[in-house]
Write a structure and sequence with these properties.
alpha+beta; Butyryl-CoA Dehydrogenase, subunit A, domain 2; Butyryl-CoA Dehydrogenase, subunit A, domain 3; 3 domains; 4-stranded mixed beta sheet; 4-stranded antiparallel beta sheet; about 50% helix
């Protein structure tokens, strides 16, 4: 399939991402040129509603673009993913909130905190939001952040309910807390909000995002359950990185090396299988509605793809000797990035297997 739109734009930005990848790893943030390239490619606008100048794009094209960007820099691809997926989340805001958030155009970068934290209390028709939220990738350059508060800390909500609040950059502070093994340049730092007033128009319940919109007139990208579309996207940057690493590693081996030949053959097959699983999952997400079985298979396939990518990278590292011990070695950086990316909770194979066996096979925990 010939890449179009976002996928083709991502292909054109790969050289810029790769050029700055090593430095980004050292300084733990993306270069301004990379940030600009991600926005120019169209990641932020990919899921923005058409009425705000967005694309209302497909999961298939985004997954392709993320894998492509991942060949240049996993951290950059991940930030592109967060801008795109956060834009999709923001589309669940009431119309007035959407207009405010995208007043500056559809390329407004948005970050999000999926882990619930903080508290929210009522004040007239508004909310007063306070707390600290961790792991907001790309937050340093985001114009807005979506902050999640659990129901037990959100006045008037049911304990199991979650609520999101859209907060502009000048209403919170960012603390540098991101010191990971890999994906260092995502700058997934923490956010502090202190008594921030948020109107109802800039808030929405997680339940609508979790199930997807029930409006038959809504674009298909909004009518998909969160777990039915997000996991494959989280695996895509690592797939792209591992694919590029395998090609680079193979080019430096002698053709008479039987061990290398077997490693490349097996690794290429693993990555092909991972790509097929992610492609199928994205294609299913592009054709809503999705029942519980389809969601469970997507979770299973994304986690399995992530495991295949990890296995392929681990094998290369195991055969690379002491040269790979240097932080300056590109293979080590890719391995650290892949390991960090595939550790995301959405790609947990044990968790997804429990969901899959319950939904598809009818197994219970009893």
């Amino acid at each position: 399939m010939t890449p179009q739109g976002l996928a083709a734009a991502a292909q054109r930005t790969t050289a810029v991402l790769a050029e700055h990848a090593a430095a980004a790893d050292r300084v733990r943030r993306l270069a301004p040129e990379v940030q600009e390239a991600l926005l120019a490619a169209g990641f932020a606008r990919h899921f923005v509603p058409a009425r705000h100048g967005g694309v209302e794009g497909t999961f298939t094209e985004l997954a392709q673009a993320l894998a492509t960007a991942g060949t240049g820099c996993v951290s950059a691809a991940w930030v592109g993913l967060i801008h795109a997926s956060s834009g999709r989340m923001a589309a669940f805001l009431p119309n007035a909130g959407q207009e405010e958030l995208w007043a500056g155009g559809p390329d407004t970068p948005v970050s999000s905190a999926l882990r619930p934290s903080g508290s929210a209390t009522r004040s007239g028709g508004d909310w007063i939001v306070s707390g600290r939220w961790d792991f907001l990738s790309g937050v340093d350059t985001a114009a807005w952040s979506l902050l999640c508060v659990a129901g037990e800390h959100c006045e008037g909500e049911q304990p199991r309910e979650l609520r999101y609040f859209a907060v502009p950059r000048d209403h919170y502070t960012v603390e540098e807390t991101w010191f990971p093994t890999g994906m260092r340049a995502t700058a997934s730092n923490s956010v502090h909000a202190d008594q921030v007033r948020v109107p109802d128009s800039r808030s929405f319940l997680h339940s609508s995002l979790h199930t997807g919109s029930d409006d038959p007139q809504a674009a298909s990208c909004y009518r998909v359950p969160l777990q039915g579309c997000s996991p494959p996207l989280f695996a895509a940057p690592a797939l792209g990185a591992a694919t590029a690493a395998l090609a680079a590693w193979a080019s430096g081996r002698t053709k008479r090396d039987a061990t290398a030949r077997l490693a490349v053959t097996r690794g290429a097959a693993e990555l092909d299988i991972a790509r097929l699983l992610l492609d199928r999952s994205a294609a299913v997400a592009d054709q809503p509605p999705m029942d519980g079985g389809a969601v469970a298979r997507t979770l299973r396939d994304a986690a399995t793809a992530a495991q295949l990518v990890r296995d392929a990278m681990d094998r290369l590292v195991g055969l690379s000797g002491s040269a790979m011990l240097s932080e300056a070695d590109p293979l080590q950086r890719t391995w650290r990035d892949v390991r960090t990316a595939t550790a995301h909770g959405a790609l947990d194979l044990d968790r997804s297997s429990a969901h899959y066996m319950r939904e598809v096979w009818g197994w219970t925990s009893e």
